[in-house]
Amino acid sequence: MAALITENFKFLALFFKSKDVMIFNGLIALGTVGSQELFSVVAFNCPCSPERNYLYGLAAIGVPALVLFLIGIMLNSHMWNMVAECSRRGLKNCSAPATFLLFGSVVGRAMVAPITWSVISLLRGEAYVCSRSEFLNPATFPDVTTLYVPNVLARIPCKDAPSDILAFREEAIRRLKYESQLLGWMVIAIVACTIFLIKCLQHCCSPISHHQEAYWAQYRSSEKDLFDRTAGVHAKVLAASNVKQFFGFVALDKDEKELVSQYPVEEAQPSPQWNEITGVYLYRENKGFPLYSRLHKWAKKVVGNGMEQDGREMALLAV
């Protein structure tokens, strides 16, 4: 059992595996901060009404975070690789911990924007003040002996607050913002500690050396870039060939004519080849040589799972 747990910790290398991921996550966070600031200035407007305040405050924090999370899931290629793997192979080549941690990687990257949104909302405090104002106990404030109904307390965040609550309004807002910002800093601390622990586990449990891991990241980036560019040229040349067969000619500009003449394409790749290079991939070795991706495995004509009898699943590949 201990060996199984140790082995599957190696899959934590999925998280923050390359500088590109860190930079991309940083850009997402910055974009989310800007969006949150714009929302606070333009769209946020506390209703100043019991029950509505609470629902509005929760919605102002939760709904945009949920939308950002779903967008992050949809834009993550790992998710669709998992879907392709499930539909074609049923994840039969992936262990349960590997599948769980791959899904965790997808969720982790998708959580960057919603966590940033929630933290900035809490640090600003406006949504929290709006949602919590009606639940305040005026008796906890100095020199306040009057009992106030929720209808009055709900107007604390508003500029047209009743005159009888002005005596403790600023103190109430200050106290609620303190609570909100405290929660925000706690979330930041929890996220930072989690990332630190994951990074430690990644380096401690990685089955490959630091230099090979760096090379692997460069290979993934280069393969994706070259594959996308080549696929674009191939698609254009194939489309030009088919259009020419239909019309008898094809209208091409100078650069496109050079592409067609330089890279003749007769037919598209058969579906079995596309299926072979699509889906979740586990880093494997074949006779001591690494296989860095499904495309690499296909190019080497390796069948099956590409592992020797004494081989091991080492780390999930983020493709």
From TrEMBL:
Compartments reported by the entry: Membrane
Key words of the record: Ion channel, Ion transport, Membrane, Transmembrane, Transmembrane helix, Transport
GO biological process, one term: ATP export
InterPro entries listed in its UniProt record: CALHM (IPR029569)
Transmembrane segments: 21-42, 54-75, 182-198
Membrane topology: Multi-pass membrane protein
GO cellular component terms attached to this protein's record: plasma membrane
Protein name: Calcium homeostasis modulator family member 2
Species for this entry: Leptobrachium leishanense
UniProt similarity note: Belongs to the CALHM family.
GO MF annotation terms: monoatomic cation channel activity
